[in-house]
Amino acid sequence: MQDMKGMTEANNKDAGNNEKDNGGRADLLKGKNGERQAYTYMVECSDGSLYTGWTYDLNKRMESHNSGKGAKYTRSRLPVKLVYYEIVKNKVVATRREYAIKHLTRKDKLNLVESTDNPVRGSMKTE
């Protein structure tokens, strides 16, 4: 499994945020205009299905999913693996993007996962 904490820290740094300024709490990070940064993400379930959601704290949400306390859909399809995420400026943008992704065909979702813009793909080790 990839290091989610490292990815989130790197992305927060790229967004001009610093965890130390917030007592080490990445979930409290705010963008330049004071809004909380959010994530829209996709996970692959153990049965191969894809689940899309949004969150303020990607690490915490992945732990929640994999401990069986996440979305009802993923509880019976554990473990889940993060395959795609986007950093967005706030909850409104995140929920709109979640809605848009959920309405894509599976093929289009897989194209997002395989895209060069996917931060998860960029951090995955190739064998």
Q: Can you tell me the CATH superfamily?
A: GIY-YIG endonuclease
CATH topology: GIY-YIG endonuclease
Number of strands: 3
What profile does the largest beta sheet have? 3 strands, antiparallel
What percentage of amino acids are in beta strands?
A: 15-25%
What is the residue-averaged pLDDT? 80
Characterization of this structure:
With 127 residues, this protein is of the alpha+beta class. It has a single domain (4-17, 35-123), classed as GIY-YIG endonuclease. It is built from six helices and three strands. The longest helix has 12 residues, at 91-102. The protein is globular and about 40 Å long.
Structure summary:
The protein is α+β, with helices and mostly antiparallel strands and 127 residues long.
Topology diagram in text:
Layout: H1 4-14, E1 38-44, E2 50-55, H2 58-66, H3 72-75, E3 81-88, H4 91-102, H5 106-114, H6 119-123
Antiparallel strand pairs: 1-2, 1-3
Considering the chains and any ligands shown, give keywords for the structure:
single chain; 127 residues; alpha+beta; GIY-YIG endonuclease; 3 strands
